[in-house]
């Protein structure tokens, strides 16, 4: 009886530990990964504030035009560290999967945005990564 009780308690403890590990682990059902597309720009000195705002506004409009964009945020650098290497604006585009990004990159609205950006772009850095 005593060994049966110990076995039941041990199995119960293993089940609890397994449930906790699954809850905080990388199980795609509890914490789906998202594909992040991070874009950072610096603009030409010859571009006016209105030109830069036009680029920002055009980028901000993309989620309403491209359905594969799951989330979007943007902002202007305000880091006190001085490590931005001249990059002033950051945009974070989130996709549910690679198919979403594959739809976004050649999408006519994205291509039109790039044409608005080109005359004002000094430098761009793009990093894509999977986030949990």
UniProtKB/TrEMBL annotation:
Residues 35-129 form the Stress-response A/B barrel domain. Keywords: Signal. It holds the Pfam family Dabb. The keyword Metal-binding does not apply. PANTHER family: PTHR33178, STRESS-RESPONSE A_B BARREL DOMAIN-CONTAINING PROTEIN (PTHR33178:SF10). Homodimer. This is Stress responsive A/B Barrel Domain protein. It comes from Allorhodopirellula solitaria.
């Amino acid at each position: 009886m005593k060994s049966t009780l110990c076995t039941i308690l041990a199995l119960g403890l293993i089940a609890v530990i397994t449930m906790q590990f699954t809850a905080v682990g990388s199980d795609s059902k509890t914490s789906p990964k998202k594909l992040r597309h991070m874009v950072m720009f610096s603009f030409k000195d010859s571009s006016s504030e209105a030109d830069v705002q036009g680029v920002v506004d055009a980028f901000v409009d993309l989620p309403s035009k491209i359905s594969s964009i799951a989330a979007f945020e943007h902002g202007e650098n305000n880091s006190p560290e001085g490590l931005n290497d001249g990059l002033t604006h950051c945009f974070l585009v989130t996709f549910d999967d690679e198919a979403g990004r594959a739809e976004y990159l050649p999408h006519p609205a994205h291509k039109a945005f790039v044409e608005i950006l080109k005359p004002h772009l000094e430098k761009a850095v793009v990093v894509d990564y999977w986030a949990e």
